[in-house]
Amino acid sequence: MYLKKLELKGFKSFPSKTDIVFENGITSIVGPNGSGKSNVLDAIRWVLGEQSIKSLRGDKLEDVIFIGSDSKKPMNYCEVVLTIDNKDGILDIDYSEVSIKRRAYRSGESEFYINNKPCRLKDVKELLLDTGIGREGYSIIEQGKIDEILSNNSNNRRKVFDEACGISKYRYKKQEGEKNLKNTKENLDRINDIFYEIE
Ligand code: ATP
């Protein structure tokens, strides 16, 4: 599994459609200060489901949408598509190439797509569990991340190891199962109350 392509449109400092193709091997992004290098990483984290605008260096949701410049009008929406090579089948989906798309509007609406089919954030999260590239993943090490991991409490630090060992998926499934059990129990209690009232 590796990242093949990143397509940006209206994301932060990229108003026009910009395609970045990652060839085999190491890709370096170089440029002067403020030219948008970190915005490329922000785009990858955003399309993979990052919900914390603060960690994308913004204050509000619409801060990821191009704000306008002297020569270009502000955009009403932004879109990022990340294409991942999945020939080795690490992503649990029957496609050798997987594209994840996220689109957001100034109105606050946000949409996710997997291979151009609309889906929920939950679907993206589940697809990426235990691959290391999800929201809790360790494959993007931004400034300060190593310090954060080292100084975190042991529970939070453990999440990184859980992800690497492939445990996150099972922990997530267990939590989902417990949530369903709790809901079912509440429903049963409600039904019992109704029975009690009817009798
Ligand atoms: P450095 O080398 O200093 O870390 P960088 O190349 O990583 O810089 P970024 O931090 O990625 O640069 O980009 C900063 C630029 O992105 C700033 O010029 C900022 O104005 C621009 N920018 C951020 N958000 C938006 C937005 N919503 N619309 C337009 N431009 C934006």
CATH class of one domain: Alpha Beta
Shape label: globular
If helices are DSSP runs of H or I spanning 4 or more residues, what is the number of helices?
A: 5
> Between the first and last Cα atoms, what is the distance in angstroms?
60 Å
Helix content: 25-40%
Q: Briefly note the structural class of the backbone.
A: alpha+beta
Strand content: 15-25%
CATH level-3 fold name of one domain: Rossmann fold
Spatial strand arrangement across the major sheet: 2-1-3-4-5-6
Mean pLDDT: 90
Report the order of strands and helices: EEHEEEEHHHH
Radius of gyration: 20 Å
Low-confidence stretches: none
**CATH architecture name of one domain:** 3-Layer(aba) Sandwich
CATH superfamily of one domain: P-loop containing nucleotide triphosphate hydrolases
The hetero compounds bound to this protein are: adenosine-5'-triphosphate
- Record field, number of beta strands: 6
Describe the sheet with the most strands: 6 strands, antiparallel
Organism: Tepidibacter formicigenes DSM 15518
Family: Belongs to the SMC family.
Subunit structure: Homodimer.
Subcellular location: Cytoplasm
